[in-house]
């Protein structure tokens, strides 16, 4: 292909911004042609100053848009110096171009709308490159997550520049990619182990948006709810997490029913991606999933979580701890270990007490749970206490039975009163177990209401 520098400048002047692409997979022929011309000989080789003069001489947009000129110069520098065989040798050129492209979009007084698709396209190109380089940070001598962090700072500047325009007749192009930017930023924050940075993004999304949530692309809606659910889970807001993850799952299943068969494998993988967090979150609020459905998507996951559900609903602390220890590395990877360690034992104890109520108090019509009966049940549930204390067994001891009962009562998961001197917990004398042990889901929702700020997601 014979593509000249003059032709490039003419294409740009005509508004054909497709030629301003650093992706060698799609624009390699143009880049190669420009590289040959820019490096034709020692005397005719274009240095940085000559490139600046060349671009300025064309008087793009009257010569007033300095940042656009800088963008074109950085693109031509990339064409001149890029090494197609070394990503590391070319990364400075790539990120310099990406940053200059972003800078063009920060000022709304210039005609930036045609650059917005170009920025989105290059964001999809740059993020995987940054991740690939960061994965080799020990070899390249950079800091961990250095390039992804830099990429997030670039995207963040564009996000912060977006303003909600009142009484506007049309929606600016930057507004159309608002949720796209939100999802990209939050995804990067999770990847660089800085999920708390998501707080500012979630908080400022609605005030910036000029359209209702439901008018964004369904794919972006699902991704947003998934990331919001994960954020809530990390912050121990379990009910909020479940609602968002469950909404993302339900929306994706509706999409699955209406797409071409070619997209089904990818959508099924995304369903599994959501279920990794949705299933344990549901168990923490007492909701049991349909494992037959999960098994149709991922038999391994179904078997794994059905085992966890069996231990929790069977009131087996020993089984719960064994399950957590077996899957510790995977749970750490998904930031699930700590929250499950904190939330699931009390739910497991609640099911244990339910068994005691059904087999002892209800059958004897006594309305009493003697401490020694509860202690015996806890001994069976906890199993032998080893000499080596770990995060799994350190707090579990049958002698703590009163603490367990009081905690369940304070959380509203058990209706009763403890009498330490009598070594008895008194409950209502009834055969209706739910009058003694209310629904876990209902009690948790009452104690931890949903975030009102999320109501706009359903409007």
TrEMBL record:
Q: Which domain of life is it from?
A: Eukaryota
One GO molecular function term of this record is: double-stranded DNA binding
Question: What GO biological process term is on the record, naming one?
Answer: poly(A)+ mRNA export from nucleus
Q: Tell me which InterPro entries the record gives.
A: Csn12-like
Can you name this protein?
Answer: Uncharacterized protein
GO CC aspect terms:
transcription export complex 2
SMART domains in UniProt:
PAM
